[in-house]
Queue: 4 jobs
Job 1
Amino acid sequence: HWMCVPIIPFLSKRLGADPVMFGYLQTAAGLAQLIGGPLLGWLVDVRGARYALIVSQLAGALSYLCLALAWTVPMLFLSKIPTIFQHALQAAQMCVTLMSDVENRPKMIARLSLYYGVGFVVGPAIGGGLSNLLGESGQQTVALIAAAISFVCVWVNLTYLPALYAHEFSAKSEVGKASPNEGQVDSAGEGDRKDAAGPASGAVKERAFADMFTMVLRPGLRNLLLFSLMVGLALSSYYTGISLAAEPQFGMSEKGLGTLMSFVGALSMIVNAVGIPFLSTYFPRQAIVYFSMALMAVSLSLLSLATDTVRLYLLLIPLVVSMAIFRAYSVSLISTAVPTEEAGSAISLAHAAQSLSGVVAPAVSGHVFRNLGFPVLCLG
């Protein structure tokens, strides 16, 4: 994914898309994510986290293949259709949620973000560098490489990752609380486990699908989703603004934009490796989330002062810190606001809230950037 991010603004420009059209392209991507996020969350709760992760990676591979074959702007929009099911981070967060307890969950999600940050650091640098090195054909070549990597990830997960069903983890937790003798459960026959899991799976499926959107009305979850939506609006505007301003305002090429994104990824890794464990030890989770949102608001406002590349790098530091903190703790809070068997749906609703912002913000940002410039976009 991150290999392709720095090449898309330049590929869209080469194919004839102006800033407003690029904003529409980003909106199309946000709409696809909005449609598919809740569906994938339901798949996590019903078919298992590994199943959803593999579906996400296959969808990503198909999207990159379409991008590699794009020769017109409509083809760029076509490449966004498979991203309806491309939610690998969401599925991976659910895997971590199922394999960790409540107290250690922020640290484990931060560790996942740390590994995800490795891709954030290496991917843009490789994608932007290869695109520059190979010339006009470089952008499509990078997309083909991204597709191949996605297929390798599918094979790895099929081979080494367990299924991870949410309702089984919930059932084990309940049995552990109800009975001190867990050995009787573990020694049950395979046929008995299948018989017990069958009706339970059906019940989870019916409840998860029917109650997916009524979950939004629960007060605790509703407030967290509103936070995710507001943060998503701000970050979608930021991502669109950086992509549009990279060349005209900061003089960046694909390689320069890739290097910038690698810097953001490296800083995120440091925050996840050092900052999250420190904050988890001394401060309550909810206070940390509020702090990260306040820091993010101030950072986005200061970003309007960036007039050259050096200032841009410096002003991005507090913004990236706030983003990393918010992502780790918001997922942890959302996953604990509902029962374990509904955690996949809850996390998917949070991603859907951010995707909703991705539908609105990029198109508006394109107009604001073209008519008012980058500083006004950051202040907005």
Note: Residues 57 and 369 are 33 Å apart (CA to CA).
Job 2
Amino acid sequence: MTTIDQKCRIDLNYNLTDAERQPPPTPLTATNMPTDNDSGSLHPSVISLMECIELSVQSLLKSNFVSSEDKQGAKQNQTKGLVNGLGSVNIDALKSDLEPVLQSLRKVDAEGMLQLQRQASGSGREEDCFVGIGNRIQVAPIHKKIIPPPPACWIEGDSHRCVRYLHVTENPGRYSVGIFVFPPGASIPLHDHPEMCVLSRILYGELSVKSYDILAEKERKQEYSSPGHNSAQSHSKTVEKSYSDNKTWFSTITSTLRRQLSNNTRLSSDEISEATAPEGAKHVINKTTKIIRAPDVTSLFPLQGNLHEFTAGKNGAAVLDVLLPPYDFDHDRDCTFYQEASLCRSGNSDVYLLVPIPQPGEFHCISGKYLDFGEE
């Protein structure tokens, strides 16, 4: 049987050598998907999701990356299509092609795939910390069951806020699928998804989500640009690209060791204006904050909702993510963290300036194994 997670071992504060790094996982396809009889098989609803993603990606490539006049070389164009991101694709076309994936996410059996333990009838003990999965069903969270446990130095008292990642599959250059498991109160700081779409299903629990839309460059120049706006030279390298042989989307979102920056402190909002904004700063609009709960399904696109941050509720949460395409350093899709620096313009549509920052020191995320997901 194909190992589901062959590359995402413990990351972040663990500096793996080249010899320790594992080859990328074999993507699941109709020909190599595990069957129900395999001892390490995926849950049927997850396999259905994988099949749906493959079909939707094919539809997306065929309808948006191959012109009717150029049938010769169509296969090559389709292969390269998602590698270069989805920023050039009309958002209505994206929503139409990816709607089947959202429908499939809604059908995922969270209780079955994670073998969640329901709250016993009449059990109301507060220490049990049960979380909802929908339909008034309460289950026990799994963050303490993931192996290996987080380093002792990250654990405070009886709880910890280290986010765990369970890799499911990845088709390089097209999509990746994984599960983020949040202990109570854990957060993923504000970050972006360059030229990407992300479709998510809340498997259990609830999260507070703050998100922003990216202001299109054309709109920004027409309405909000300032003649004096120029990236200050002194800030031009505030955030450097991570560089390693292990350039996977997971390593870029979690590894501080790949981001050895000379300045590990956040910039003061009072010190930043449009004229002094560092390279990579973004103008954003439609700042929103909302609570999402299982079994909600959410989506973000190259501009719409593209930057967001999560904070789990008091009993934790788990989220199944589909990224199209995956993060990719070689194609300028590295994951970058941000902080809100200033309000550039107020009115009917407030415009905010977000500036890139080093990975926040309080954020920890390591991969692990639970059932057939991930790898120890």
Note: The longest strand covers residues 197-214.
Job 3
Amino acid sequence: KGSKSDKKVGVIGLCFFELRRLGKVENIAMAGTNGKKFPGIREHLTKNISQVYNGLDVSCATYPADDVARDADAFKAALDQLKPGDVTTIFTPDDTHFEIAKYAVERGIHVLVTKPPVKTLAHHIELVQLAEKHGVLVMVEYHKRFDPCYIDAVNKAQKHLGDFGYFQSFMSQPKFQLETFKAWAGISSDISYYLNSHHIDVHCWSMQEKGRPLSVVASGATGVAHAEPYNCPKGTEDTITIMADWENTASKNRGTALYTSSWSAPKADVHSQQRFHYMGASGEITVDQAHRGYFVCTDKDGLASVNPLYMAYMPGPDGNFNGHSGYGFKSISTFVDSCIALNNGTVKLEDLHTRIPTLKATVTTTAILEAGRASLDSGGKRMHFKFDGDGNITGYA
């Protein structure tokens, strides 16, 4: 039995059902590994989406069949039904992203993949090259890039604060989530790939055309995840901190960054603590994404700091979904709109790399995540990045 999600209605399914109502997508399919879960999923979709949002159509094909208990290749049967120019989303365990994305890209299908897109720089670069070869968009669902506060903060950091000097981020989730995560935590991925990826991407985004990371070193805390009642593998990190040294391109001045993520936090007023501090030569920025000054207290759930800027779930006056301005919805709709524009020839793939978190625009984030993992595995060794003649990261040592 998994832990309760902080997204009771869901995000991806709801967004695509709404995009279908708006006429931007047509047929929808869902692929998993256990077909026996689909009757319960359909019941959930009907109760929590269709009956809430004015009878919103939640019909979709499902793979594998309802009587199939296990089929790890069901995604192939689903993707084989698509044609070039169609879209797919990948929200699966971290170590499965590469195989699924590659299968889709080679068939000319546009891809939206959750963070981290892949776990290694080599896989990231290979997918970038395949996407360019087949002319398809691969976008990473770094939805914080659509948060109005983060957009404003990054714009100010890039244009008004001078050389980068210091960045510090923190993101956590409550330890009860390990009831779900223990299926893969410390086995196929870690808390840094899962949560640090968000703010590492925000920092890398702010440093586009401005600077590059030179090296990273990582450390981790243990004691909660591998103990009762979670029993993750011995040594599974509860908290991971990556420290990165950066270089400003023009001045060659140095900057330093600390990225920390944890899944051993207590239950609090928010599901996920998330904040960052950026300091440049001419000023600083502090953003607390967890607290937007909006608190709700009920007999059932107690005190909560809520964030409707991400997903606004209350129906609008007409009874339909009314969360089009939320940055969770915008991330999905921007991907779909970009694919439509590519298919229509009104935008070129290379134009999108500076506008949205394409795979090509997020190489540095994956490099830092992988090097951080390598540092942990080597007992805290500092990893130095290697670059080609054009300044692109090619590896680390």
Note: The first helix runs from residue 12 to 21.
Job 4
Amino acid sequence: EIKKVKKKYNLESAFDDLAKRQKIFNDTKNSIMGLFQQIQHNVEVMSLTIPEDKKKIIVKEVAALQEKLVVVEQYKEKVDIIDKFCNDLKSFDGNLKTVDAWMMGATKELEEIRNASDKMAPEDRVARTMDLQEDIAAKVIIIKANIETELALLPQGEKVPQDAQEHKDELNRITKYVTDLQTKVKKECDNFSEDVKYWAEYKTGIKEFTPWLVSAESSFTEGLAKPSSLDEAKALSEKVHGFEKSCADHLKVLDAANEAAIKMTTHKDADAEVIALKERYAKIKAVADNWVKKVDTLVKEWALLDNTVTELNAWVAKDKTTEGENQFSLEKMESTLGELKTIFKEKEKLVEQL
């Protein structure tokens, strides 16, 4: 019976056989120990009547028999070993089943993070992937312990029983799956960590661009002040050219923010925000271009008017001595005055159009 006590690697069969061996052991132990106790009782009774020399022989025989009772203890040790083996195998199998059931949920969690990443802030994506990483790391510890357990629990070498090989194959399958999953999650976490940096760059640019845009839209609504002198027109020209440069500078800020955004793993919301801001910017830029064009034309006309008046004043101040010169000068004056009227009307028209 002791020789029949062997390891079985199919979990159900192992516990069925263990129960069977434990019953046989208990029955055998009870039978043997019951007989021995009966023998001891009989010897005690016999010792009351048999001669002393016969008594010594019987005691010697009982002692020899008692020495053989060690087989019961050996039997127990063998059954206890199988009992521990079965429980270790059950724990080993339970750990594999636990990790196997967890794997699908972990994979689903990764997919949810990926699919919903455009609806989460980069910081939230990083937090969720880091939590998943920690969960995977805990399962990797369990797997490593199972790998060590497998070396002690299951037979090694080429000729491995099929039931034992199935446990080995399952361990290898789960180990590979979790290792691959760990690599994927680490990559995603690294990507999302980069997203935090790019997100910060994007938001910094947007925070700089948006207030300027709002202020520019307010200026657009208010329009331009109408100058009453060439100096004021020149000051206005400087102002609109400054606004034009500000438009160009802030477009660079928005473009830089957009470049940072498109480096993120997902940037759907950022894309929509940039498009909306660029649409508003385009309206402001069109106004700026129109202002520059109008004011440049106004300054040019006003400068021409100012130069013409200066030229006329200088000409009138000259002393004229001959009748022909006076006649020529009168014609020139009439022509210049006509030109002044035309320029002045154009200037007034331009001022009104601002």
Note: The two ends are 113 Å apart (CA to CA).
